[in-house]
Specification:
The protein is mostly helical. Helix content is 71%, strand content 0%. The relative contact order is 0.16.
């Protein structure tokens, strides 16, 4: 089971601005 994928999908589902957040997290180092 791919927990990482599940976490990412659920995170995106609850983050309307997930694209901006993803960019921010990429620099911060959060998966």
């Amino acid at each position: 089971r791919d927990d990482a994928t599940f976490w990412i999908l659920s995170w995106i589902a609850v983050k309307p601005g997930w694209r901006i957040s993803l960019q921010t997290h990429k620099y911060i180092g959060i998966p």
